[in-house]
Target: tRNA-U20a,U20b-dihydrouridine synthase
Amino acid sequence: MTLGACERFVADPGQRVAEAVLEDMRRDSAARWAATWGERHRVAARPGEPGLYLALAPMDGITDAVYRRLLTDQFGGRSGISLCVSEFVRVTRDPVPAAVLLRDVPELAHGGHTRAGVPVYVQLLGGDPEPLAETARRAAELGAPGIDLNFGCPAKTVNNHDGGASLLRAPQRIRAIVARVRDRVPEHIPVTAKVRVGWDSSDGLEEIAVAAASGGAAWLTVHARTRTQLYQPPVRWPDLARARASIPIPVVANGDLRVPEDLSHCAAQSCCHAFMIGRAAMARPDLFAVIRGARQDRPLPLAELADILRDYHAAMRDDGLEPGRAVARVKQWLRLAAQLDARFEPHFHATKTAAAWPPIAEHLAGMADA
Model:
């Protein structure tokens, strides 16, 4: 990939980038973004390739194989999604057995792709380089098209056990983990990293970015919040430009990308031209196709979401998920959709106490826009 305005090295790697440099970068970036947006109908397989890169974010307890299949199957397999990342696989003292990897990421038994042919990277979470590297080697051997390393999970239980965002406080450990995994995985398989802008501030973002890049990450995805923010506002898109200025690899922007216009606003502030979308897909499962211009930009009709939820429940039951958990997943989807679109609130409240599928199915049958 040719280096552009946003891939310039700063004089002292890891040091804070001057605001004047960032302003120059953002001006230079505008023309390149216009060209990328003009090619948004092309699905870029990786950041920096021709077209627009739009990844489906990993969300623990949500984006399992059924969800990934459902979203990537949309519109005859033309969902607009470039790549999926699995829910994290927790790695502690010992490497994860192959059977567990196949259970958690069943796409590995099908070439590491969804039924629609979208690649699924295996995300690993942990703090010990050696078992992480061996688990990554096993995943690659099983057919993983890529390995993603989670340094951004804000969950307290994860952070208290040397995982996720807790590593943001020790960038040298991020570098060591990425380097060990990169060394163990075949060269043609990308190793990527996902971080937040920092633990309780973004002051060390450049150092975090340099750590991941110098360890051998192919690209870096940054959720534009600190760990202590969890998912609260504000989203910090401007901070991402500092990561872009610090490293020669692509930086993928993540956080509060809810409508197509958000991508342009984010690109202008962050200098990022590749994106990862997570929670917004709960209210707009068609958002990836809308961004690419393949679907009309309008609120998703309630009846369409009802159809998707029925398909979701049926697919979970077909996959063997027990009835209570399948019902809980449907209600979780409605709850998250309601947080982003008020039209879904009455439907969540009408179903949230249901303990079985029939009353939910009956309610979904009547969902329609006024």
